[in-house]
Amino acid sequence: MLSGPGSSLTLDQAYQAAYVWMFHIGEPPSEITERGSQAVELRSATMSALVRVPDHPVNQRTILAVLASEPDDRQRVIFSATGFTPAAISIAETQGISLFALDGSGRATPQNGRATSIAPTDTPPAPFASDDSADDSTITAANWGTTEFPVDEWTDCPGCGVNQHVALDACRLCGTPLTDQSSPGSPPDSPVYRCRECGSHDVEIVAAGNPALNR
Fold this sequence. Notes:
- This protein is α+β, with helices and mostly antiparallel strands and 215 residues long.
- The protein has a 6-stranded mixed β-sheet, sandwiched between helices.
- The N and C termini lie far apart (64 Å).
């Protein structure tokens, strides 16, 4: 269950993520207290949540410090943006402290059995956009050449000459339909397109039966 460093959340973002989580489960915080440069404590009527953003996984010292704090009847929870060490998870489990790791989008993931028992079945939406959610599907001429398809599965667009995969119905650049004019079902003398020079956008039409196609 160890979750190592990797979250890019600031303390302000981490506390906001914890606030959203507590509000979602019906424990809206009524008190917010700073506990140093890397920690904030959120308190509701029945829950006390410590939010940590250290540069390493939270260890057993933090768990012991929470246990040594002034006792009350509130349920104790710790949110960490860098996860927890195995020792911290073990001690927290035996002492009834719920541990949650916050990822880069602010989503809280249970790290011990106690946390799993109180985690909502309907997880609240991630409050922040993660780097993983960035849209990298934009197609540009620069990245069209990076593909796992074999070279012989590519063809030139009859409209602009840009190389396209044969599975596409239309060119990604100009929208020209990409029909296989040389397929067995095509009329023998139907026109097909051929680049004058490899990679050029200069295209000419020749008859399918023209011997020039075989040169």
